[in-house]
Design a protein that fits this description.
By secondary structure, the protein is α/β, with parallel strands linked by helices. The chain has helices spanning 40-47, 91-102, 108-117, 133-146, 163-174, 188-194, 211-217; strands at 2-11, 14-24, 29-33, 55-60, 63-64, 76-79, 151-155, 180-184, 197-202, 205-210.
Length: 225
């Protein structure tokens, strides 16, 4: 689903990603983990084609990421940490706006499906300015899910959300059985709950583990941070 081969990214003399080789397979939920400044955003932006790949290759569903070819974009959807929504519009109006930005007509049945999936159907006619932060994140996730892409990249989807809001987001993620997900996270408890693997970025190098291997290797078994 995602195949990265010999990826190298640098800014001036600073090497951020050094010969990264990793594959994320179909239906895996892989946590992207690393210290602040380790290069997680550079890695995500490279996957999304927002940064030009200077050395190496990235393939999404077998198609190489390139500004000259955009077929790969149909397979991938991205939820940033802060999704820019329209506060004066209702939840369903926001979904409609972003849906019609991609295609001329919105699919009412599909909108009901995604809003139901994130437990916002009953609040669809409420102005977004009245939503809690957890509801805002779930609405952003609904918009991300609308196009039904097979690969989701989620950047800190539970950042700044209270425990109940985090629980709601995690329950939605656990229900997405047919998606391949790369999830940037600092929370070990949510990695334990929803992830199958960990991509650990440290000193410009990336290592992939199962969740159990990662916790054991880094002696994190008893930490609930």
């Amino acid at each position: 689903m995602i195949k990265v081969t010999d990826l190298h990214q640098s800014f001036g003399k600073k090497v951020v990603l050094d010969s990264i080789n990793i594959g994320i397979e179909k239906n895996e939920i892989c946590a992207l983990v690393g210290r602040n400044g380790a290069g997680k955003s550079t890695f995500i932006n490279s996957l999304l084609g927002l940064l030009t790949v200077k050395q190496g290759t990235i393939e999404i569903n077998g198609i190489q990421v390139s500004k000259k070819r955009d077929e790969w974009k149909k397979s991938i959807a991205y939820l940033p940490e802060k999704f820019m929504l329209y506060p004066m519009l209702t939840g369903i109006e926001n979904v409609t706006f972003f849906a019609e930005a991609v295609s001329r007509a919105s699919d009412q049945e599909r909108m009901e499906q995604v809003l139901t999936a994130v437990r916002l159907w009953d609040d669809r006619n409420v102005q977004v300015k009245k939503y809690s932060k957890g509801m805002l994140q779930r609405l952003g996730l609904a918009i991300t899910l609308y196009q039904d892409s097979s690969i989701l990249i989620l950047d800190e989807p539970t950042s700044g959300i209270d425990p109940l809001g985090r629980k709601e987001i995690l329950e939605v993620l656990k229900s997405l059985h047919d998606k391949t997900i790369l999830l940037s996270s600092h929370h070990l408890d949510e990695i334990r709950q929803v992830c199958t693997h960990v991509a650990y970025l440290d000193n410009a190098k990336m290592t992939k583990y199962t969740v159990g291997e990662f916790l054991e290797t880094h002696h994190l078994g008893g930490i609930e941070a």
